[in-house]
Specification:
61 residues, 23% strand
């Protein structure tokens, strides 16, 4: 997440080879970037930690 980022609430997934995806906090929908199969581990983590992500978005934005 970035400070003062644009809507909708989302987080960024950046891979080890510097490719990026934007994922909506509401439903883990990919807004832009990589397909789900390439960031499955991050999506699984986000599903388990949604409350933390929502709280962090509120803090930063």
């Amino acid at each position: 997440m970035y400070f003062d980022d644009h809507l909708p609430p989302h987080f960024h997934v950046i891979t080890t080879d510097h490719r990026e995806a934007l994922v909506a906090l509401e439903d883990n929908r990919i807004l832009a970037g990589l397909p789900a199969r390439e960031i499955r581990e991050a999506l699984d983590w986000a599903a388990e930690h949604r409350a933390l992500l929502v709280a962090k978005w509120a803090e930063l934005n």
